[in-house]
Structures are given as structure tokens and as C-alpha cells.
Fold this protein.
Amino acid sequence: MFKEFLYPLVQYFTPFNIFQYITFRAAYAAITALLVTFICAPAIIAWLRRKKLGESIRTDGPQSHQSKSGTPTMGGLLIIISTVVAVLLWQDLRQVTTWIGLLAVVGFGGIGFMDDYIKVFKKNKAGLSGKAKLIGQFTVALAICTLLYLNGGKYVSYLYLPFLKEPILDMSWVFIPFGIILLTFFSNSVNLTDGLDGLATGLAIMAALAFAIISYITGRADWSEYLQFPYIIGAGEMTVLSLALVGACVGFLWYNSNPAEIFMGDTGSLMIGGVLGFLALMLKKEVLLIIIGGVFVLEGLSVMIQVGSFKLRKGKRVFLMAPLH
């Protein structure tokens, strides 16, 4: 928003020229998200405590976790609100990919919110049924992947391997179902990782920082050519989204670190996974996401292995507990 309104006035006030620089806008997006979180968190935590809208802790886990029962949840709303505010203020709103990124934030966050709402307000520990949650995730992922496929440029359907300059495959329309699977898996993997104070939030900060660097390089023709990245027009703007997410998560981590004052719930974890998956698809770093989000991937795979073993081996488990953490 600032770029659209203030940069055109550079002919009258030269310092407004700074709004064309992605580094400036991305840095202030992080600061804005951080400040919004700090300003809103105390009031939201106090309101949740007054309403006694706390998290129920599974009884088959470590007994030390039972002390966390009743801790306010749905803190992911803080991350969503601060990220959206920062993106709207500092990112280039004329680019379609800006709005696709916001769709990932609001879409996956909305599914998580409905799940948390049913658990907390309706006192239904099951929340959304697994089928309903998957249908919602597939629908949001389909919209994101279709919009990316139609607006993402010539590289959108290419699949790259780390350290290789040329793509190994042009997926063509298969990019859409591929992207749906990636977004759904990663969204659920971050959700599964959110089980220890600060775990998912801290990992999300590191992953988003990595994507901030990658998006800035990918959006610069000179740097991307030198480092043998595919140059993607408009990718640099994803630096703003990435650092907005970093700022929001850093602010939230202040209240989520041990002992946690608030949990992010599915509202935050599904949203973070969806945004990281979107960034990987947008920047053509789908395979690199396995490394950047390695812990998330291991958490998701541990559940898949556990469930598969339980069903196929008549109740036998591979792990003492899953997810792996």
C-alpha cells in the first residue's frame, strides 16, 4: 500500500524513492508484524483466559505436559493478523502473486480457525473431521495452484533440483495436483510439529528466513544468474511476505516459548505450513523445501509410518509415540 501511494510522489519528495527497494519494505514488514503481535497479544491472551478457552492435552502423552492443560489456544490469529497487516502495508499490491500469498495465509488459517473454534467454543475435542479438514485444504490448495499455474510465468511448471541450473522436468498441468499434495502435506506436517513450546514457531522462523534470502536472489536477474537460480519476475516481493511471517513468528515466540502463555493451535500451524509450501512452489524450491523444512517433513512422515504400520501390521507400532517429537 505504501509503495502504491507514496512512491508515485517521489517527484515531489525525493526520499519517497526508498519505497521502491524490496530490502527496505521487507525489513519494515518484519518490524510491523512484530509490533502488531506485541500490541495485540496481551489483550487477546487475557480475553482467552477470561473465557477459559484453553487447550486440552492428550492423556496418553508425557505426564509433564498435563500442566499445560488450559493454556489459551488459537494464538495463530496473532500470526495471521500481523502477517496480513504487514503484507498489505509493505508489499506490492499490483502483483497477482501478492494476493495468492494472502490467499494461502487466510485460506489455510481459516481452516485451522474453524477446527480450533469447534474444539474450543463448541467443546468438541475432535474439531473438524479429518475428511472435512482435507476437503478444505484441497480446495484452498487447488485455488492457489491454479492461480500460480495461470499467472506464475514460464518457470511455474518446471521442477528443479538443488545445485542444478537447468530444470529436470516440465510437469505441465501436473504441477497443479503436485502442488496440491505438497501444500496439503506440508500444512499438516507443521500442524503435527506444533506439540512442544516454541518448536513449530522456531522452525518456522528459520524456514521463512531461508525463503526470504532465496526470494530476494530469485527476483534479481544479476544475482540469480551468478548463483544459477532461475530468475522469476516478481519473486523478490516474496521477501516481504517471508519477513512479515518472520516478524509475526518472533513476536508470537515471546509468548509461546517455555512456559507457553498461548498456543498457536491449528489456526497458526496450518497457515504457516501453507505459506511455506506456497513459497516453495512460487520460487521453484519444492525439493529444497525437504531440507529447509526437514523437521516438518520428518514429523509428517513419522505419523504416516505409524498409521500405516498400525493398520497394515494389526496394531503394531514403529515409534513409541508419533509425531516424532
